[in-house]
Amino acid sequence: MSDDTEDTIAETETLPLDAWHRRKGARMVPFAGYHMPIQYEGIVTEHNWTRNQAGLFDVSHMGQLMVTGDKAAAELEKLLPGAIASLKPGKVRYSLLLDDDGGILDDLMVTNATPWIEGDEEAGTEGRWGEPAYYLVVNGAMKWDDIAHLREHLDDDVTLTHMDEHALIALQGPSAATALNRVMRNVIDDMVFMESVVHDFGEWPLRITRAGYTGEDGFEISLPAEFAESFADRLCAEIEVRPVGLGARDSLRLEAGLPLYGHDITTETDPVSADLGFALTKRRREEGGWMGHAPVMQAFAEGPAQKRVGLAIDGRMPAREGALVYSGDTQVGRITSGGFSPTLERPIAMGYVDTALAAEGTELEVEVRKKRLPATVASLPFVPHRYHRGK
Amino acid sequence: MARYFTDEHEWIDVEGDTATVGITDFAQGQLGDIVFVELPDVGSVIDKGKDAAVVESVKAASDVYAPISGEIMETNEALEDDPALVNTSPEEDGWFFKMTIGDKSQFDGLMDQAAYKSFCDGL
């Protein structure tokens, strides 16, 4: 037997929950430079548990950064195509780091983490917003490059802090809110998707963000690494919560149509062909002033040569990353991630195809080991998102 | 009937001139949930060590190599409808294919059950 997907990395580091995962029976694999749990009980079981209950994911490999300073928003807007200056405290936005050619260096979440400083009646001070602060969560495999890129281009008046003493735990699934609310009463009652709060739970200073990477309602909770084990144990004490590994994280995000950096989006892809135009705010498209603006606007004007689409594949044989897509004898695209959907019980994939063939329902073929599999362009997500958007 | 094991985690049952081939319980545990098995064509002749089948788990595709040289005589059609048989009954109902045995000296160097067990314990 040979497994052709696992990379071996020379110096693999451990994360704060390493021993906890091993006690829970995880199989550990090297990923993004760390030993990470690929699965505990089994990928399909964990996948279905997350869709029906709540999965706890350790995503501490991801880069957690804090950008602070009076000019923080303006400086970030030089590198990100989204509106950062108009992002209100406690709000979260999906964004991209682009290079000069409009290629995607990474995708990330940006939270306006500017603290509210309570007034003090005795001292005669009123409540006010503190120093502007933006909390960034970037991909684990890209974080060192991202930090170098930010350090190079952000003004010296802005401070970039790598929160490498922090763990990040995601709780995802339809029961995530129920479980978290039972643990911490009323903390998340008023929160909707893409909002973030800080909350001291006993001695644990938490940042709780209602977002995730599974398509389900859920939360990402950042906390100092020293408390990660007791916090994970506290969540897993709830009947709805079980630990879920990287394997199910990948099948869940694929069903949710969410791109994976390094596979579905790279420096070779731009926001237009990747169908991530929503991350580019209208005002910022018009005004520019961000790295990659000219080539990206040119791509918008001309229309992309290829587009990222979903592909539903007939039969049971999965088509994986790298498989070529055909229309008749002509190669018209390539799969960038693919696998078996536990929810739909069929193979699904994401990839790039010629724009003329990117319409939903277009019938194409994917070649796997010299066999042609019928495939149909499908709208993303494959499994509907169930975010908690409030009213 | 003799059962041999390879260091690629395949088992081979030998009965007369026919060998039945599958993957071991250890192998299915490593692969996880199996969603598809691509089997060789009946009548094809495969050399020892060459690709004979592909096992697709949710996570990845893994090659299964021919443990001996020979001609494929029959494949397990039950795996088409229920590939998870490889998870639930890897060393019985989840067999992959039957093949001819060209040369019995090919079994030299393969492991028996006890040797395979200590091989896995050492991994």
From TrEMBL, chain A:
It catalyses: N(6)-[(R)-S(8)-aminomethyldihydrolipoyl]-L-lysyl-[protein] + (6S)-5,6,7,8-tetrahydrofolate = N(6)-[(R)-dihydrolipoyl]-L-lysyl-[protein] + (6R)-5,10-methylene-5,6,7,8-tetrahydrofolate + NH4(+). Its EC number is 2.1.2.10. The keyword Transferase applies. It comes from the Bacteria. Residues 18-112, 127-282 form the GCVT N-terminal domain. Belongs to the GcvT family. This is aminomethyltransferase. It comes from Qipengyuania citrea.
From TrEMBL, chain B:
Gene3D superfamilies: 2.40.50.100. Binds 1 lipoyl cofactor covalently. It holds the Pfam family GCV_H. The modification N6-lipoyllysine is found at K59. Residues 18-100 form the Lipoyl-binding domain. Keywords: Lipoyl. One of its GO terms (biological process) is glycine decarboxylation via glycine cleavage system. Coiled coil: none annotated. Its cofactor is (R)-lipoate. One of its GO terms (cellular component) is glycine cleavage complex. NCBIfam families: gcvH, PRK01202.1. The glycine cleavage system is composed of four proteins: P, T, L and H. The glycine cleavage system catalyzes the degradation of glycine. The H protein shuttles the methylamine group of glycine from the P protein to the T protein. PANTHER family: GLYCINE CLEAVAGE SYSTEM H PROTEIN, GLYCINE CLEAVAGE SYSTEM H PROTEIN-RELATED. Belongs to the GcvH family. This is Glycine cleavage system H protein. It comes from Qipengyuania citrea.
